Amino acid sequence: MLNEALQRERAGFPREATQMLAEHVAELRNQNKPVAVGLLVESARLFINTGRYREAESQIREGLNVSPRHFDLWNMLGIALRRLGRPNDALIAFDNATKIDPKNTAPLVNKGNLFLDMKRSAEAATIFGQLVRLNPKSSEFQRLLGNAYIQLGDLTKASARFDTAIRLKPDDIA
């Protein structure tokens, strides 16, 4: 069932894929069968990608009950909680993901973006500055740091970061 759902997603039908997995998970639960963590991860990812954040949170928490040190589940929980308007809970989830895999930059990017949402610009700039130091050739990190500088009101630094991002990846002007 998982492979079929992922094929539907790749074919451009993410909502159908999400529904297929949701029904499969519900069927397993109704039969009192265990739901594999991998299935919960994919189901939660699809829920997030289709804007069904409460359902994603539910799947993720179920997965964390089985696998409490699962990096992807903690990172996705932070994303879902951010979208649900629970920033403080999201920060905790991103911190947990970082503790599990300190070298993975995804939760740091997510945390920095959450700080931007919360108008905690200095903290966002600190995180994005760390990421730029880790990978100065990342146009994404340069652009994110520029966004933080805009919020801080430092247009000179923001412009410099955006110029660097464009120089690094001219075809990506997002």
Overall spatial form: elongated
Strand content: under 5%
Radius of gyration: 18 Å
What is the number of helices?
A: 10
| Mean pLDDT metric | 96
Total strand segments: 0
Description:
The protein has 174 residues and is an all-alpha fold. The protein is built from 10 helices and no strands. The radius of gyration is 18 Å and the shape is elongated. The model has no long low-confidence stretch (mean pLDDT 96).
In short:
It contains 10 helices and no strands.
Attribute tags:
mainly alpha
What's the SSE blueprint?
Layout: H1 2-10, H2 14-30, H3 37-49, H4 53-66, H5 71-83, H6 87-100, H7 106-117, H8 121-134, H9 139-152, H10 155-168
Helix pairs in contact: 1-2, 2-3, 3-4, 3-5, 4-5, 5-6, 5-7, 6-7, 7-8, 7-9, 8-9, 9-10
